[in-house]
């Protein structure tokens, strides 16, 4: 058992993608809200969209006042089986939208925040919302001002492909 756990942990530590899954390592930041009196960048415009590599840690940038960031990730639907999304880390709370429709919310996205910082996310992507070809997953991440908010890489694939890594990470992080 120790060899299985160590082998699994080693795979997680190295960031190896689950087999038969698409790992999304690039996103676009649609908007960021700042912790300030009424000042918000919540309007999405083409000139405010910022490409970013995942994982994205807010602490790595000088933007210490960010409290909400909306990420847009694109992925292809190969068809033929149900798709799931697996996100190893989000700091501190999140909402997921698939092609514009809300599919999951972790609770309050404003103070006091619902806390899911140590929880890996694993959710079914509703087949009724999936399109043939390219799909968009928007992940809105909320965190307290001055904290290390951010988003890890995201994997999309079958439940069978993603479940082993999710189960191990859930065990280790909880």
Sum this structure up briefly.
The protein is an alpha+beta fold and 174 residues long. It has helices at 2-13, 159-173, and strands at 21-24, 26-34, 40-41, 50-53, 56-57, 66-77, 83-87, 90-91, 93-98, 101-105, 121-125, 133-142, 150-151, 154-157.
Describe this structure in words.
The protein has helices at residues 2-13, 159-173, and strands at 21-24, 26-34, 40-41, 50-53, 56-57, 66-77, 83-87, 90-91, 93-98, 101-105, 121-125, 133-142, 150-151, 154-157. The strands form three sheets. Strands 2, 3, 4, 6, 9, 10 and 12 form a seven-stranded antiparallel β-sheet that branches. The chain is α+β, with helices and mostly antiparallel strands and 174 residues long. Residues 1-15 and 36-41 have low confidence and may be disordered. It is built from two helices and 14 strands. The two termini are 19 Å apart. It is 16% helix and 41% strand.
Structural class: alpha+beta
Given the C-alpha coordinates, what overall shape results? globular
Report the C-alpha radius of gyration, rounded: 16 Å
* End-to-end Cα distance: 19 Å
How many strand elements?
A: 14
Largest sheet: 7 strands, antiparallel
Q: What value does the average pLDDT take?
A: 81
Number of H/I helices: 2
